[in-house]
Each structure stands twice: as C-alpha cells, then as structure tokens.
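Continuing the batch. This is chain 6 of the set; chains 1 through 5 are on the previous pages. Same settings as before, nothing changed between runs. Recording input and output for traceability.
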Amino acid sequence: MKTALVLGGSGFIGHHMVRRLQAEGFWVRSVDAKYPDFTSVEADDFIRGDLCDPAVCDEAIDRPFDEIYQFAADMGGAGYIFTGENDAAIMQNSALINLNVLRSCLRRNSKNIFYSSSACIYPEENQLDPDNPNCEESSAYPANPDSDYGWEKLFSERLYMAHARNEGFRVRVARYHNIFGEEGTFDGGREKVPAAICRKVAAAADGDQIEIWGDGLQTRSFLHVDECITGTLTLMRSTEHGPFNIGSDEMVTINQLVEIVAKIAGKSISINHVPGPQGVRGRNSDNRLIFDKIGWRPTALLADGLAKTYPWIEQQLNGSNH
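Output for chain 6:
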C-alpha cells in the first residue's frame, strides 16, 4: 500500500487532500497543531503537534513516504495577513516549519514532496490594474510581494528548489490562488473572501446591506477546493516541478462576487463599502503554463463552487455552535 504524509492535514486544503488520498487507497498520516474544525480526524494516523518543533517533525517523518504534501503554514485571509500586526509570527512560524520539514525529510531520505506556495508572491506593481493583472509565473522576479506572507512563501519556494538541486529532492511547487469551499474557515478573522461573503449573506435578511472592505472593484479569481486537489495531484505526479499557478482564470470583482452569492441565496443584498485591508487591486491566475506543461485547467465555473459552499456555510450558521 502506498503511503502519504499530509502536513497541515487538519487545515482546509489539507483535510480535503487526506480524504482524496484515502479514496485512492493510500495509507495517510496527517500532522497538525489542531484537530479539524468541522470533521473528525479521517487520516489513518494523526499526530497533533506544532511543526515549528523539530521533534514533532522527526516524529511525523519517521520513515520514507511515497508522497508528502506540505500545506502547514501560519496564514489566513486579508484580515490576518495584511494588517501588519502578524508579520513576525507569519514569517518565523512558516519558515521554521519548512526548515524543519526539509531537515527531517533529509534525515529519513523521504524526498518526494509537494509545497503549497501562494499567488501572494507576485510583485505588487504587476497587480495595480484590476482589469489587467500580470501573474505569469516568470513575473515573480524582480521580487516585490505586497506582504511579508508573500515574502516568506517566495523564500520557501527557493528553499525547496535548492534542496532539489543540492540534495536530490523531487520537489513540486504550486502557487495557489484563493482556494475556497466547504469545511473552510468562515469566521474569526482568518477566513478568505468567498467564505466571508457567504457568511455575511447567509446571516442577512432579504433586502439587507452587508459590509465589504474597499470599493469592491478589486478583482480576484477563486478556485473550488475539489479543483485545487485535482490540480495538485496532477502536478505532483507529473515530470514537471513548477512553480505553477493553480487557480481559476475566471476573474471577478468583489462586488460581482457578492452578486453571485446573493443570487444563490435568493436574496436582494446591497453593499456598504467600508475601510479595511484589501491586498492588491487585481489578481488572476494565469493558467497558460500549467496547461501547456501538464494539461491541467479548472473545469467548473465560480458559481458552481459557490453553489456548494454557500449552503454548507448557511447550515453551519443555522445548525451549529461554531
């Protein structure tokens, strides 16, 4: 039986990956500092521990694994990443995790690893025009991410690729663009935009107004987690190493995102634009390279993913104590 290790396996993308790998017949170990928020542990083996601690990494990576997926990071939505109040923790914790993981992998000669980077690595000046952002993979340098979260991700990309060159690792790197879906955080400050909007619309009555940070004209693309997992597995099992964008190229404004969610909810919702952290003005996944090299592209529309995500968040609000 093939074995897989999912680091950050209780997180949003991580626990979906655990589930998919098990469905494929893998024996799966999951490692995280917390238990999953919305489900029980589904991995065959679960280690609760902080990967900032080298001893936890050594316990987790105690043998060679066929596939390792590294999702663990100190991260969140705009309300966490872009305020500037969490920069030291974000950089220190995430860098420590990656340094420890690679050290333990080297120790056990377990060198087949996927690393989840982020579209936040792209230069701020390439994302000032909301209608024409440039997120082509080659545009990452000269580097100028708009957040320390982005700088840490870019450093860690280089860390993994250096281990590929110098230590014989088989590394795959993806730059994720705004992944959303069921069983993702939707409140508390670390949630991403689609989850936050779904929550606000679900909590609103027909005809109500919801608050949106900024003028709502900033653009993004959003990829449903099921598509993200498929793209990640396709990359992991290809002969290419990346970095590649994994995201949707269906770009919408935040105001349009509200309209789509309101339509799914069957509610008339207006917007109150208020000051708040926004990130860059425009961002969209450029999928030309990954499609050319490994043949992957998203297959579903944004509205299709939101049609699955909104009812789940609405149910959480109505039927749970979360």
